[in-house]
Amino acid sequence: IKLGSPILFLQNRPGLNEKIFKILKYRTMANSRNANGELLSDEIRLTPFGKILRSTSLDELPELINILKGEMAIVGPRPQLVRDMVFMKQAHRKRHEVKPGLTGLAQVNGRNGIEWEKKLDYDLEYIRKITFIGDVKIILKTIGKVLLKDGINEIGYATALDYGDYLLEREMISREEYEKKMNQAKL
């Protein structure tokens, strides 16, 4: 009722072995565009109800369908944007050797409140030490983090920065390299 139609947001994400699948989420943003047809910033497009869904992590609930379809696991590295892959070091792309998860080690250790490199390192740490007990601990910690609404957004942003934007903003790559990789991601 609050967001209109469609209720679900589908987006391509890299899964196991970088196979692309469509992740399901509740839509939290409007499709508002400027005069050139480009999407407006997340801060403008994020609806008040969308903020509530994100703050409670309820926007992730439809991902249970992805889990039932076998595209995701309950615990594993969070599925990032397809374009994030072109910015990742080859070592960090090993995170795709397991199914992406609804929650993971990075989510219980800061989520979007930590630096990208740390998130990716947590993903690698997780895949090196996958255990049933470890997964249970992550699930229990996730419940606490969700209840506390801890680390949902990157400080100073309505949503988390994409990896490429993060690298560009922190001057870890040049504008030219950023544009080249963004074009590569479109292929």
Explain briefly what this protein structure is.
It is built from eight helices and four strands, in the order ββαααββααααα.
Provide the fold topology.
Layout: E1 8-14, E2 20-26, H1 42-45, H2 48-55, H3 63-68, E3 73-75, E4 101-103, H4 105-108, H5 116-128, H6 132-148, H7 163-169, H8 175-186
Parallel strand pairs: 3-4
Antiparallel strand pairs: 1-2
Helix pairs in contact: 7-8
What does this molecule look like?
The protein is of the alpha+beta class and 187 residues long. Helix content is 38%, strand content 11%. The protein has 8 helices and 4 strands; from the N terminus they run E-E-H-H-H-E-E-H-H-H-H-H. The strands form 2 sheets. A two-stranded antiparallel ribbon has the order 1-2. Helix 7 runs antiparallel to helix 8. The chain is globular. It starts with 7 loop residues before the first strand and ends with a helix.
Structural class estimated from helices and strands: alpha+beta
Give the rounded overall mean pLDDT.
Answer: 88
Count of domain modules: 1
> Please, how many helices?
8
List keywords for this structure.
4 strands; 187 residues; two-stranded antiparallel sheet; alpha+beta; 8 helices; single chain; two-stranded parallel ribbon
